[in-house]
Amino acid sequence: MAVDSTFEFEKRRNRPVKYDRDLMGKTILAMQRVREIKERREKEHFDRRMKDAKREKKTQARVEIEKSTELLAPAVANREEVLRNVVDGMRERIAARKRSSGEKVKSAAAISGGDKKVAAESMDES
Question: How far apart, in whole angstroms, are the C-alpha atoms of residue 98 and residue 118?
Fold first, then answer.
């Protein structure tokens, strides 16, 4: 970013010029355009620099995961059990909500596919 033509353009700013309304308007528009160009170039420069950094960060993360696989193994083993508990809890809450509203509810075995017949429970009105 040390070599940029916008810097040369900015260096010309200290020349005395007779006031002209049109020239002032054009100058302000040119200043805005120069700012846009400079910001775009800075963003592109940053993106080019960070492209390699992203790749390097991914490789470092992979190396770290490979080094500490023994820490991740229990978490992965428990993951299925945790997901199963969450799903079962959600099913129970939905069933309770349906029971309180008076709708028919499928049993948990029928929902999970373990039992092929559909068991319908109706709420006792007592």
Answer: 16
Which single residue is written with the structure tokens 């029971």?
A: 99
Q: Within 10 A of 105 (CB to CB), how many other CB atoms are there?
A: 20
Within a domain: residue 34?
yes
* Mean pLDDT, rounded, for 86-114: 72
Which runs of consecutive H residues, i.e. helices, occur in the chain?
Answer: 5-11, 21-67, 69-101, 108-112
CB contact at 8 A, 96 and 123:
no
CA distance 116 to 110: 6
What is this structure's pTM? 0.38
d(CA 44, CA 9): 20
Q: Are residues 91 and 116 in the same domain?
A: yes
